[in-house]
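Hi W., the adenosine monophosphate complex you wanted:
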Amino acid sequence: MIVEQLPEAVRSHVREAKRQGRIVGCVPTMGALHDGHCSLIEQARRDCDFVVGTIFVNPTQFGPGEDFSRYPRTLEADLDRCRAAGADLVFTPAASVMYQDDADTVVVPGQLATVLEGAIRPGHFSGVTTVVTKLFGITEPDVAFFGQKDFQQQLIIRRMVRDLNLAVRIVTCPIIRESDGLAMSSRNRYLTETERAVAGDIHQALREAIRLADCGECSAAEVALQMRRRLERSGQLQVQYAVVANPETLEEYQTEERGIEAVALIAVQLGSTRLIDNALLRFG
Ligand code: AMP
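Structure:
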């Protein structure tokens, strides 16, 4: 496995792979890799011939007071995981390489980035779309892999790729969970033992939403309310949102819905840690 820090070096490897007719896959990450990230690399390995992972804790997607400085950085272990999952090349740029002092251009997403995560974390998605565009420019992938875990993010990236005619296909991969259902996240390592013990409630709330929709409950507002109740039961999770929304537009469903797809989306604060999760539902 090749490890490179400079865009020009990455580009020359990728161009050589393409000259050989190989399909290039890219998996962008911020490191602190877990089995969720590895599942993306493994999917890229199955679908593509040349797999590029990127590890970059992107400063522009963190707001003031967020966890940029304490975000876990575990490069050596990450490279081992990339190797084991089948990456051919890993790009690990320094921030100074990604952002020149006089950088003057950003990619700003629209409506989809104003709700949910975008409402709570102003500027976050602009940081994401800008860095992802740069990573696509450097790694020139045919296919790029993102997790459903960050549902709004993959939707915004899909829209950006369509709107800007970027020549990359986006694949969204399923959420990988711990045995109690907690979605794997680099931030889970912030949790204390007592916090960790209730973090599984987030998945329980999503399961409750799926169960209600499966059992014929067709009021989206009622499903959202029951999710919130389940989250609040322990008294430890502070609910930022618990909504049932259109999976294309992220508009909250308010009325009785039948025969439609939906996404249940949750964000909670647990002590000093912010956690998000989601699940797809269908109102019968
Ligand atoms: P991050 O390092 O948090 O930026 O995540 C990098 C990629 O991994 C994103 O596309 C995430 O959606 C994806 N990802 C993070 N956690 C999981 C998980 N538990 N299951 C599947 N994909 C994940």
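The chain has two domains: 2-173, 186-278.

W.
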